[in-house]
């Protein structure tokens, strides 16, 4: 008799094969040109197996995206230990973010590469924006923002996503740890200090 855990493992394995097949195909051709047979052939499963898990190609992409973006959204909420900004102490959110991206490189490479003009890339920027809104909301209310919140959140989310896109396009030439350290330092320095253009006091 097969227990529930064994069934769950088998289901996850099958879904993983289908997802990996689909994402690898996305790197080779336009999503609109991919048919179910392409996916099942690449994943080495039959059509009935595919349809047991997904309604169609759009449902597959939607479920992958929702799962990954939900995981991305959890990163900020899971940072329960207070972080004291320091030039040589990595911000734990950036560490978790870049480790998550590295663990899911294929998905994010597709979303920010082949599907960069799709709503999915905008959803990712929105998820990062919400993560920083959560972080800012957790800061003492006595701290007064120096920049309007909407401008601050837009700047943070789009600049970070731009850096992520470039990093993935360059095949992650820097380690997640290195990227986390650089973003920690950029966050502390600000643009003008990082450029060495700030007025010396």
Automatic annotation (TrEMBL):
The family database entries (Pfam families) matched by this protein are listed as: TetR_C_8 (PF14278), TetR_N (PF00440)
PROSITE patterns in UniProt: HTH_TETR_2
What does the record give as the DNA-binding region?
Answer: 35-54
Q: Does the keyword DNA-binding apply?
A: yes
Q: Does this UniProt record's set of keywords contain DNA-binding? A: yes
HTH tetR-type domain residues are 12-72
SUPFAM superfamilies, alphabetically?
Homeodomain-like
Supply the alphabetized keyword list.
DNA-binding
The name under which this protein is listed is: HTH tetR-type domain-containing protein
């Amino acid at each position: 008799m097969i227990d529930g855990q064994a069934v769950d493992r088998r289901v996850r394995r099958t879904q993983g094969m289908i997802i990996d097949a689909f994402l690898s195909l996305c790197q080779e051709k336009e999503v609109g040109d991919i048919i179910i047979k392409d996916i099942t052939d690449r994943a080495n499963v039959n059509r009935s197996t595919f349809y047991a898990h997904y309604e169609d190609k759009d449902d597959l992409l939607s479920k992958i995206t929702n799962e990954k973006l939900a995981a991305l959204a959890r990163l900020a909420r899971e940072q329960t230990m207070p972080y004291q900004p320091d030039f040589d102490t990595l911000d734990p959110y950036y560490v978790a973010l870049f480790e998550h991206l590295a663990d899911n490189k294929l998905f994010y490479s597709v979303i920010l590469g082949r599907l960069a003009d799709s709503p999915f890339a905008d959803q990712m920027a929105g998820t990062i924006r919400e993560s920083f809104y959560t972080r800012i909301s957790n800061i003492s209310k006595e701290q007064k923002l120096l920049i309007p919140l909407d401008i601050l959140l837009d700047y943070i989310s789009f600049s970070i996503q731009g850096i992520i896109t470039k990093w993935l396009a360059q095949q992650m030439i820097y380690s997640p740890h290195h990227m986390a350290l650089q973003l920690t330092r950029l966050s502390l320095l600000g643009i003008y200090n990082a450029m060495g253009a700030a007025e010396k006091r």
